[in-house]
Amino acid sequence: MDYFIQLLVSGIAAGLVYGFIGMGFAMIYRATGVVNFAQGELMMLVAYVAFTLAATFKLGFWPLLLASVAVSMLIGLLVEVLLIRPMLGQPVFSTVMVTIGLAVIIRSVVVLIWGADPMPLATGLSTTPIRLGPAGVYPAQLHALGIMAMVVAGLWVFFRYSRVGIAMRATANLQTVALLMGINVKRIFALSWALSAGLAAIAGVLVGVIYDLEPGMWLTGLRSFPAVILGGLDSVFGAALGGILIGIVENMSEGYIGRGMKEIAGFVLILIVLMVRPYGLFGKPDIERV
C-alpha cells in the first residue's frame, strides 16, 4: 500500500507539469485552431532563461517565477506577431509547420547558448523531501500543486467574468461572429499566445527546480500532449486534469509493469479514450447542421 501511495503522489506531481504544458496547448488551439508543436521547446527556452536570471540577480523561487512568466509572455507575443500573424488566412497545416520549425530552432539555440550539460536551477528551495504519510515529496512539488490551484482559479475567473476573457471565449466559438461584434481577433490571438507562453514558463521553472535543466527536457512537452488530447483539445481546464491523470498512469504503469512503460502509457491511454470519446473527456463535439 505504501508503494502505491508513493507512486500516486509522485504521479500527481509529474502530472502537474504536464497539466501546465497541456493548458498552454489548449489555450492556443481554443483561440486559433492551431496546435503549437513548439510548446515544449518554449518551456525549455524559458527554463534556461530562468537559469540565467537566477544566476545573475540571485532571485528566489517566487521572484524568479514571476520574472520568467513576464519574459515568457513577451516571447509568446513576439512569436505571434513575427511568425504566426503573417500566416493568417493560410492553411492550418502551414502554420503548424511554422511551429515545428520554431521548435527545431529553439532546440539548437539552447544548446548553442547554454551547452548540453545538465545544470541545476538554484532558487533557494529546499531539496529535502517532506514526508506525507508513507510518501515523500519535494517542496517544489508542493509549490506546483498550490500554483496549479491558483492558476486554475484565476483562469476560471478570467474567462467567466472579465471582458477580455469573454471575448476570448467568443473568438474560440466562432471567429467570424466575434469580428462582426467588434472584437479585435488579432489582439485575442496575441493574448492567447502570451498566456500559453506564461503557462510554459511555470512548467519550465518547476521542471528545472525538480529535475535540473538539460536540452532533452523539450520531450516533456511531447509527453504532455496526451494530456490535452485526453482532457479535450479545446478544454483548458480539461487539459489540467488530463495532465494529472497522465502522470498517475505513467507512474503506475512503470511501477507495476516495468521500465519503458512510462514513455508509452500516456499514448496508449489516449488511444483507448479516443475510441470512446474522439473529442476527449471534456472536449465539445463539433456538430455540423446540414
Q: What do you see in this structure?
A:
The chain has 290 residues and is mainly α. It has one domain (2-122, 138-276): Orthogonal Bundle (ABC transporter involved in vitamin B12 uptake, BtuC), CATH 1.10.3470. Helices cover 74% and strands 2% of the residues. It is built from eleven helices and two strands; from the N terminus they run ααααββααααααα. A two-stranded antiparallel ribbon has the order 1-2. β1 (130-132) and β2 (135-137) form a beta hairpin. α9 runs parallel beside α11. It is globular, with a radius of gyration of 19 Å. One of its GO terms (cellular component) is plasma membrane.
Give a short overview.
It is built from eleven helices and two strands.
Count all strands and give the number: 2
Given helix and strand content, the structural type is mainly alpha
Tally the helices: 11
Strand content: under 5%
Which class in CATH terms? Mainly Alpha
Q: Might you state the CATH topology name? A: ABC transporter involved in vitamin B12 uptake, BtuC
**Level-2 CATH architecture:** Orthogonal Bundle
Give, in spatial order, the strands making up the sheet with the most strands: 1-2
Helical content stands at: over 70%
Mean pLDDT: 85
Oligomer: single chain
Order of helix and strand elements from N to C terminus = HHHHEEHHHHHHH
Q: Any idea what the radius of gyration is?
A: 19 Å
Distance between the ends: 55 Å
- Overall tally of domains: 1
Low-confidence stretches: none
Give the overall shape, derived from the CA principal axes.
globular
Membrane topology: Multi-pass membrane protein
Family: Belongs to the binding-protein-dependent transport system permease family. LivHM subfamily.
Subcellular location: Cell membrane
Keywords: Amino-acid transport, Cell membrane, Membrane, Transmembrane, Transmembrane helix, Transport
